Amino acid sequence: MLLALELFVMLVLANGSPLVVARLLHQRGNWPVDGGRVWRDGGPVFGPSKTWRGLVSGIACCLVFSAWVGLGWFFGALFGLLALIGDLISSFIKRRWGLVSSARALWLDQLPEALLPMIMAWLWLPLLLWEAVAVALLFALGNMLISPVLYRLGIRKQPH
User: Can you give the residue ranges of every domain in the chain?
Assistant: First the structure.
């Protein structure tokens, strides 16, 4: 149970720390991962909200937390990277569907960023498959419920 909670916290850190760092640094270090490039359909590859600053902060937070709880820094770095790759995959798909950056796409916004690192955790750690799936689903549902609250508090720019 403690392991599942630690993994849940790591998902929150990977996906929440870029928001916090963006609020603290404003436009500093705000370089888009896609470099402003467009895909062959004419739309952005990921969009302006996917930045190197966010990628680095998400990985760093997971790395530090994972080392602190005894899972190891390498596991944490890889977990954070996979969570953010899942987020990039979501953004890529949303851009192909013609959705603007930060547009809402239920489940697509939450599951890839939770499932990719949880699959790795399931393969790496003494974690049952149902526990990995449960953590990913709880993260997705929690994200859907908490994001509007964070928006009302002025932490998020979008309510989703």
Answer: 2-26+41-152
